[in-house]
Amino acid sequence: MEIMVFFSLLLLVCSVSTNPTEADNEIVDQQISNQQPCPQDIHAVLREMAVSLAEQKIEIRTLKQDNQEHVTKLERQMTELERQKAEIEHLKQQSKVKQVAFSASLLEGGNGYTGPFNVQITLVFRRVITNIGNAYNPQTGIFIAPVRGAYHFEWHLHGHAYKSHPIAGVLFRNGEHIFLAFELQASGTVSTSCGTSLLLEPGDQVSLRLWAHARIFDGVNHDTNFSGHLLFTV
């Protein structure tokens, strides 16, 4: 009988220790509640994150706009710099072409006659004294204007009189007859000269042609010569 009472008491103790009380359940519920935020807190966090994200987007957009403005400003500065460099280079070129002058006599050396011919021929003045700007070509006898401007030309022709062969030369611009220097006499030595100022465009060609049936002479004194220079640009 005593043994049965002992076992009954033991089972009662075990039952009490294994079944949680209401107090224990409240403690566990409180811990779970502390670990899991409420829906109101989650929405608040999400709103804060959305506001922060929107602010960051605005800031990024502003930075992009500022960067684009800097890029545009830099491009404008580079364009202006290139324009200034081109203008400086143009001014340098203009300062160079403003210095144009040449002078040459007919024969490179010795004495000799040129002509007569049945047609006009371009005279090639081969003994170059001055050719600043290299606008005159001693291989062709043609002057090519490097810049728009007013140019002055002079030519002096010399020869010995011959009643059927005048001393004569005509200035041409792009195939256009401009002025003729002409002299004819029966005996002695003969000289003639002429000069003119022309408005030329870049690339215009000026040359001196021997008049048909004319005959000229050049020698050690370089009596027959051709010269020209730029007066001013226009």
Notable traits:
234 residues, alpha+beta, Jelly Rolls, 2 domains, six-stranded antiparallel sheet, five-stranded antiparallel sheet, 3 helices, rod-shaped, secreted, Tumour_necrosis_fac-like_dom
Account of the 3D structure:
With 234 residues, the chain is an alpha+beta fold. Helix content is 38%, strand content 33%. It has two domains: 22-97; 100-233, Jelly Rolls, CATH 2.60.120.40. Mean pLDDT is 84; it is low at 9-18.
Q: Could you state the oligomeric state of the chains shown?
A: single chain
SSE pattern = HHHEEEEEEEEEEEEE
Principal-axes geometry comes out as rod-shaped
Tally the structural domains: 2
User: What is the architecture of the largest domain at the second tier of CATH?
Assistant: Sandwich
Provide a count of the helices: 3
Question: Main sheet, how many strands, which sense, barrel?
Answer: 6 strands, antiparallel
Structural class: alpha+beta
CATH fold annotation of the largest domain:
Jelly Rolls
Strand % is: 25-35%
Overall number of strands: 13
Architecture blueprint of SSEs:
Layout: H1 2-18, H2 22-35, H3 39-97, E1 101-105, E2 112-114, E3 121-122, E4 127-132, E5 136-137, E6 142-144, E7 149-160, E8 167-173, E9 176-183, E10 189-200, E11 205-210, E12 216-218, E13 225-233
Antiparallel strand pairs: 1-4, 1-13, 2-12, 3-11, 5-6, 6-11, 7-10, 7-13, 8-9, 8-11
Keywords: Coiled coil, Secreted, Signal
Coiled coil: 46-101
InterPro entries: C1q_dom, Cerebellin_Synaptic_Org, Tumour_necrosis_fac-like_dom
